[in-house]
Amino acid sequence: MLEQCFSGYKLECGCDEAGRGCLAGPVIAAAVILPWGFQSVLLNDSKQLSEKQRDILRVIIEKEALAWSVAEVDNREIDKINILNASILAMHRAIDKLIIRPEYLIIDGNKFKPYQEIPHKTIVKGDSKYLSIAAASVLAKTHRDELMYKLHDQFPEYDWKQNKAYPTKKHKAAIREYGVTDYHRSSFNCG
What we know:
By secondary structure, the chain is α/β, with parallel strands linked by helices.
């Protein structure tokens, strides 16, 4: 079982992102405040779950969270400010959209820029330690996957339905054959 809380604050918000290592599309972040006492035997780091499990959890999280939001930074912004800054900006945008102001932020990873006056802690592998970060990882991943399915319909040759724009052999071969789309990140080595 993952831990409920890091800080002791009841309105602790977990943040995570998806799409950082992709060659195309946005980076999407989620921010989630879970109710005190929230439990789920299924909830874990989204990378440890099947697509079906993530889809089931998305519904539960969106229904039961005190507050949740997702936000994105598109490929053009990523190219201007780099992927690390874009990931942090996406998290800030997600926190901006919450209907409840968090008292404390726990962030997956080891890099973050302070958000207003709210105290925060970065936690390496936080999505496999704390419920709210795991919930954020599920929302970020499912929302980004949903977007990549839609983009796949426009650009089926890149196989985004399967690879979600990660640098697979098939994706790289399609770039060599067809070139890049307006959704590809020019600051990444897409060859």
